[in-house]
Specification:
Helix content of chain A: 40-55%
Number of helices of chain A: 4
Helix content of chain B: 40-55%
Structural class of chain B: mainly alpha
CATH superfamily of chain A: Ribosomal protein L30/L7
Oligomer: heterodimer
Largest sheet of chain B: 2 strands, antiparallel
Strand content of chain A: 15-25%
Distance between the termini of chain B: 48 Å
Distance between the termini of chain A: 29 Å
Order of helices and strands of chain B: HHHHEE
Shape of chain A: elongated
Number of strands of chain B: 2
Number of strands of chain A: 3
C-alpha cells in the first residue's frame, strides 16, 4: 500500500471553479499544505485536474502533521552533549 | 512629480512585451517538466499497484513531453487573428498555471 504525498505549490486563485473544488476535495487549503492519499485511479484523476499546481511523490506511509513539520525544520547546527552513563542507559533502553 | 507617459495620458495602455525573455522561457520549460514529472509519478505509482487511470493514459496518448516539443509550441500558440497565426504564450490568460501544448496541425 503506497500513498501520494501531494503538496500545493501554486494557488488556484483566478482559475476555474472546478480547480478550487478539486483542491478542496483533496484537502488542500493553503499553498505548501501537504496531504496524503492512498494510490487509486480516482485520486490520480483528481491530481490530474490540478497537475500544474501541485507536486506529487509516492511514499510508503502517511506521515503525521508533526513529521511533515519536522522535515521542513532546518538543522539546528549543534547537538546536546550527554554523559557516557546517560548515553549508555539510553542505548540499553533502545536495545 | 507628474511624468507624462502614454500610460497615464491614454487610459488603457497595456505594456505587455510582445515576446518572452529568455529567463521567462527557461521558467516555462521548467514548469512543463514539472507537469511531466507529476504525470510520471502518478503513472508509475498506479502501474506498481496494477491500476490505471483514464486521465493519465489520455495525457500520454495526446500530449507531447517537454523534450519532444518544438520551441514553436513551447513559447507560442495558435491565434487566427495574427498575421503569422501565432502569438506568444504569455498572452494566454493564467499561462503559468495552465497546460497549453498542442496547436492545430499545419499552423
Amino acid at each position: 500500500m503506497s500513498y501520494f504525498r501531494v503538496t500545493l505549490l501554486r494557488s488556484a486563485i483566478g482559475l476555474p471553479r472546478r480547480s478550487t473544488d478539486v483542491l478542496k476535495a483533496l484537502g488542500l487549503k493553503k499553498r505548501m499544505g501537504t496531504v496524503f492519499h492512498a494510490v487509486s485511479p480516482s485520486v490520480a484523476g483528481q491530481i490530474m485536474r490540478v497537475k500544474e499546481l501541485v507536486s506529487v511523490e509516492e511514499v510508503d506511509r502517511r506521515l503525521t502533521k508533526q513529521e511533515v513539520r519536522l522535515q521542513r525544520k532546518p538543522d539546528p547546527g549543534y547537538y546536546i552533549e550527554k554523559s557516557a552513563v546517560q548515553e549508555r542507559s539510553e542505548m540499553n533502553a533502545q536495545a | 512629480m507628474f511624468k507624462p507617459t502614454n500610460a497615464l495620458f491614454g487610459g488603457l495602455l497595456w505594456k505587455t512585451p510582445w515576446r518572452l525573455s529568455s529567463p521567462q522561457k527557461a521558467r516555462q520549460r521548467k514548469r512543463l517538466r514539472a507537469v511531466d514529472r507529476v504525470v510520471d509519478t502518478l503513472s508509475a505509482a498506479l502501474t506498481r499497484n496494477g491500476q490505471s487511470a483514464k486521465a493519465v493514459e489520455r495525457w500520454y496518448a495526446e500530449m507531447p513531453r517537454e523534450e519532444e516539443m518544438l520551441p514553436k509550441d513551447k513559447y507560442t500558440l495558435f491565434d487566427k487573428k495574427e498575421k503569422s497565426y501565432r502569438k506568444s504564450i504569455h498572452k494566454l490568460p493564467k499561462w503559468t498555471r495552465v497546460s497549453q501544448r498542442v496547436n492545430p496541425p499545419g499552423f
